[in-house]
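Revision sheet: structure tokens.
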Amino acid sequence: MARPLRITYPGAIYHIINRGSRKDDIFHCARDKDQFLSKLHSSAEKYSIRIYCYCLMDNHFHLLIETPDEKLSEFMHLLQCGYANWYKVRYNLVGPLFQSRFKSVLVENERYLISLSAYIHLNPYRAKMVDNPADYRWSSCRQFLRNEKSELVDPDFVLKYAGGIDNYRYIMQKMIQDVPSHEQIYGKFGILGDASFKDKVVASLKHLEINEKAVLDYRDLKRIEPSVIAHKTSAVLGVSISDLTSKTKGNIARKIYLYLLKKHTSLKIVSIAKLAEMTPFAAGELIRRFNKEILLSKEIEEKLRAVEKQLYPNIVP
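Predicted:
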């Protein structure tokens, strides 16, 4: 499955979600969660990310953040790779920790922060981990309902729009009774907002054809011609077209080219394998392993992003 495109601009607000590979736990004890929060704090400081709320569950996490600059991917790369590397050493893990890179939902404005943060804070309660959401140690709910101080989260901005702590508590209580729909939390096409906001976002992506019945991860985006991907990859990476299918050891250009064919074209793996003069199984394995390399190598991710910026010049993937 192709990864969702990242729509970024200064001041954008996002609901970020990720979970463990195969839905396995990514936190086993208090120390693990402390380490993740420490990484979250340092990563947010480096990229000036504003954290509105968070919640760490055993096998996934939620973040509600604002990015003053277009540094969403850099921030999440630092956070996830930093924690994953620490986790792998601690638990002797081989292979990816997270199920995917991360999922992001673009949020229109402050009005949605109230319902989203309430939904996020209710996760431990709905999972029957606590009787009172404010008792859960690994979310920002205590900062909201008990006025506890934190260097990581300042609840005043959201509470101001909610009308204060009492009103926010009332909103959470009402949400327990009236559970919001999936679309009210995750939006459509990775966008949560009013119709006019969605129209503006879609209008800014004029070269994309969005199917109104598409799922969150943009499966029905207009596909790019394979020849375009070949020429863009060749130009950006400074290699010849023939190098893109060369079986030379350590050929990163080849991996990027095949990965992009799978992600951005309508070609099946059989056709991609034929272009690369490989068996379908070998091509599939190469692309699967390359997904892991992207998470572990900043250099590879930057090369990939450089090519994708040429494919989608108005979007940072």
